[in-house]
Amino acid sequence: MLIDLHKATLLVIDVQDKLVPAMADPQGILARIRWLLQVATELGLPTVISEQYPKGLGATATALTDAAPQAIVVEKLQFSCVAAECLPESLLAHEQVVVCGMETHVCVLQTVLELLALGKEVFVVEDAVASRTPASREAGLRRMRDAGAQVVNREMVVFECLRGASHPRFRHISKTFLVGEQP
């Protein structure tokens, strides 16, 4: 199955001010998720950003909300966005959910497992998820893959949404985001 721009939503999980510094490669993960958000904005991919207990963990990193001003931001106390019942109907109406964020083995994992249980096609962006340790990240990715989630990278997301060079945004996106060094 391919990601279909007209059937998908991007879900960014808990990339918050007080949580980011605890991640392995904090600046790298911020840069990669920002890049993904910028491309999603260019493509018009609907985007939802979750925040786990923002009173304690702070708001979403400003670099991300600046990159996706159209995104819907939702708060939660449960680890899973599904269990928290914070996801807007507009996200749940889509067949496909592209997921990135942190922590891979906790909030991302629980959300992905519950989205799969709802019958969603779930794509976890491997180079845009993080945990405090590489071993926890890998364990989370392995479990999600074993449960039926598709593990992809950022370029897979972009090229599957574009489907071909005939897409009206292909030239701009390839020049702006795909040429040269990526984060």
UniProtKB/TrEMBL annotation:
Residues 9-155 form the Isochorismatase-like domain. It is an enzyme of class 3 (hydrolase). Its EC number is 3.3.2.1. It holds the Pfam family Isochorismatase. SUPFAM superfamilies: Isochorismatase-like hydrolases (SSF52499). Keywords: Hydrolase. InterPro entries: Isochorismatase-like_dom (IPR000868), Isochorismatase-like_sf (IPR036380), Isochorismatase_domain (IPR050993). One of its GO terms (molecular function) is isochorismatase activity. The keyword Hydrolase applies. PANTHER family: HYDROLASE, ISOCHORISMATASE DOMAIN-CONTAINING PROTEIN 2. This is Isochorismatase.
